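Bug #77: duplicate submission created two jobs. Keeping one. Sequence:
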Amino acid sequence: MGETKKTWLITGCSSGFGELFVRKLRASGDNVIATGRNAKVKLAHLEATGATILDLDVAAPVDKIEAIMAEAWDIYPNGIDVVVNNAGYIVTGLFEELKALLPKFRARGTGTLLYMSSQAGMYADPTATGYCATKHALEAAVECLSLELATFAPGIKVLIIEPGYFRTQAFGNINYVPTRNPDFAEYNAAVRAGIESQLGKEPGDPDKAVSIMIDLVNGTGVAAGKEVPLRVPLGTDGWSRIKGKCETVLETCRNWEEVVKSTDFPQKQ
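Kept job's structure:
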């Protein structure tokens, strides 16, 4: 018997990683529910793939998202197997109550949640405060989720991907904050020029990245026979920055160990 095909729900499919997920998965025969805002227009280029196109704004009210997810779950006979969280928004609440498909995954006992983070989830850059802060927060929230699911639903896999600079449209869609203080004008201009000089020259190949992410979910290819960790960086630049950050933290722990441990109450003999 052939391998059972999975059903994937992917957010943010208009371009970049999301679009590549749709095209690769449909080429391999998997079912795909491609979502995005104003989907009839922004996802029209994906209709020929045979993916199901669904209009979804991840910033919509929770009741509307839940209704759309209920519709999505029933599109294919066995529900949804993998959710690729390629778009997001900030809101407060208990984690499970924020994820409309998680209760269905937990009831069934299986499924995969893939979250698109960034090297920015581990490494900070000047002028990228907003982006780095949200990615750091995402990683903390998803790590908490992975620990919760290990207790309540160990059959659900959680995966955080941390790409470096990949040749998507990301650098072409940056919203630059207007310079309010003239002291920063020259610096901001240099930052913008530096970012724009990277357009089309990013070292990462998004096609290769998506192929590896699919392997990580399926346990095939580069992931065959391996235990997939919670976090996987992608791209040489992302790898070097994340590795450097981890080494710096470890060095701090070593060099300051005596001072750090001195804050404990004396241990009873």
